[in-house]
Amino acid sequence: MRSRSSTIRTHRAVTTLAALLAGALALSACGGSDDDKKTGGGASSSAGEKGSGVTLPKLDGASLEVAAVWTGGEQKNFKQVLAEFAQRTGAEVTFVPAQDPIINFLGSKIAGGRPPDVALLPQPGAIKQAVDKKWAKPLGPQARAELAENYTQGWQDIGKVDGTQYGAYYKAANKSLIWYNAKAFENAGATEPTTWQELLTTARAVYDSGVTPFSVGGADGWTLTDWFENVYLSQAGPEKYDRLARHEIKWTDPSVKEALTTLAQIWGEKDYVAGGASGALQTEFPASVTQTFTGGDQPKAAMVYEGDFAQVNIGETKAKVGTDAKVFPFPAVGSAAPVVSGGDAAVVLKDSEAAQALVTFLASPDAATIQAKLGGYLSPNKNVPNSAYPNEVQRTIAKALIASGDDFRFDMSDQAPQAFGGTPGKGEWKALQDFLQNPTDVAGAQARLEKDAAAAYGNGG
Predict the structure, then answer these.
(1) Would residue 436 count as lying in a domain?
(2) So which residues are the signal peptide here (predicted)?
(3) Quick one: 183 and 73 in the same domain?
(4) Which of 134, 224, 285, 312 has fewest C-beta within 10 Å?
(5) Is 37 exposed, middle or buried (0-12, 13-18, 19+ CB in 10 A)?
(6) Pairing of the two strands 409-410 and 340-348
(7) Where are the beta strands (DSSP E) in 62-175?
(8) pLDDT for residue 297
(9) Rounded distance, CA 225 to CA 433, Å?
(10) How much is the pLDDT for 321?
(11) Range of the domain at 116
């Protein structure tokens, strides 16, 4: 059986975080720093954010390779973090671009005798697979000490397998946000919704104004799993969410039918998705964001669902977060708004002093503060100063995450075996892409999801 990730156990806690986030976003001031104009100029001073900073060894002559699936601005910003580590230690650090699924990518590297020293794994399921394959090495005492000082127990536990710490969650994500083009909303007389029904009303107002309501990055199947998870968590509740995440109930359950039927109210509505289903399935996530914030008051779509990290892509346009690009929490489908979190954990694959030192650094406020200043990033590290985030919207999201403690639900597909929840063209990604193409076939989607889940989990639900 798979290890159970640490999550909250009451609906009230989810409701509390959603209310906190909604209220805080409502109070957010307009404007903020232009993320893509930030540079590493402030990076070297970040050690001062926590007294003398984390203690690192001298590693002159050591070389490290770090693999992650990050691209674009996210990769560029992370490289500044690695550059700071290199400056402090004397080690040479190389970023290795990986492809999804990262477990397959790492398998090829390991088979060829060239594994990276450290990998950033985007799923708890991938951490467990790396442990099962005997690739991952336990974190050393220094890294564990940084985690104990800077992370809540829940964020530590997600990186554990059978009680042993293998992962340090460097990056978190609030995946319960909808970003919108403020000018398009203004022209349509649309308002920020708090319920699913209000979202449909807002979408109709936008549509009637001549703008397509939603941009969907359907070429990246993980965006569709995130849509489903928010609807399912809010509608079915956290207890069923946990059971479905562990495949203790089948995907043919009536609660899944209800969630898919709800999604079809948007995915199946004629002209509600930019480019239609076919266009969405050819649109990757970054483009789904940028096309929402280009074209002035006539963008390809007025809204795009995804996490706080969408700010990296918004930064590639002329839109300013907090003025041109605004955000509201994913609306409540059931009795409470959903709060779905995700993240990426640093895992040691080659057990050396340098690799352990890098993960220790990534678990410290020093590293996270550098990337926080660059924008489009959220850290679960509770000792990163909120002032490090470059705009009020991001500071609000970060504050809500830290205030929640362990009150969150982790991304369901990321908890699943990677064959089901994290592989392009297969499992849940492919089944939901097929459903986006034909949202009337709820029963067929459920049957495909259950067949693939049963095979991946090795049980019948």
Answers:
(1) yes
(2) 1-29
(3) no
(4) 134
(5) exposed
(6) parallel
(7) 63-68, 92-97, 118-121, 160-161, 164-165, 167-174
(8) 85
(9) 9
(10) 92
(11) 38-174+343-384
CATH number at residue 56: 3.40.190.10
Least confident of 13-17, 371-375, 407-411: 13-17
Q: End of a domain among 353, 384, 415?
A: 384
If you count DSSP H runs as helices and E runs as strands, how many of each does the chain have, helices first? 21, 12
Whether residue 317 sits in one domain with residue 278: yes
Clarify whether residues 250 and 192 are in a common domain. Answer: yes
Q: In the predicted model, what is the mean pLDDT of residues 258-282?
A: 97
Are 181 and 330 in a shared domain?
yes
pLDDT at residue 191 greater than cutoff 80 = yes
Q: Note the pTM of the prediction, 2 decimals.
A: 0.80
Question: H-helix or E-strand containing 432?
Answer: helix 427-437
22 and 45 belong to one structural domain: no
CA 440 from centroid of its chain's CA atoms: 28
What are the φ/ψ torsions at residue 299 (nearest 5 degrees)?
A: -75, 170
User: At 17, is the pLDDT very low, low, confident or very high (cuts 50, 70, 90)?
Assistant: low
Show the CA angle centred on residue 309, arms to residues 163 and 52, nearest 5°.
Answer: 65
Sorted by sequence, the CB contacts under 8 Å of residue 283 that are 6+ apart come out as: 215, 216, 217, 218, 219, 274, 275, 291
CA dist 22 and 31 (Å) reads: 18
Q: Is residue 137 part of a domain?
A: yes
How many domains are contained in the chain? 2
Residues 268, 375: one domain?
A: no
pLDDT at 404: 81
DSSP states of 377-415: -B---TTS-GGGSSBHHHHHHHHHHHHHTT--EE-HHHH
The per-residue pLDDT for range 80-135, each reduced to its tens digit, is: 999 999 999 999 999 999 998 899 999 999 999 999 999 999 889 899 999 999 99
Percentage of residues of the chain with pLDDT beyond 70: 88
* CA distance linking residue 123 with residue 422, whole number of Å: 8
**Is residue 20 located within the same domain as residue 50?**
no
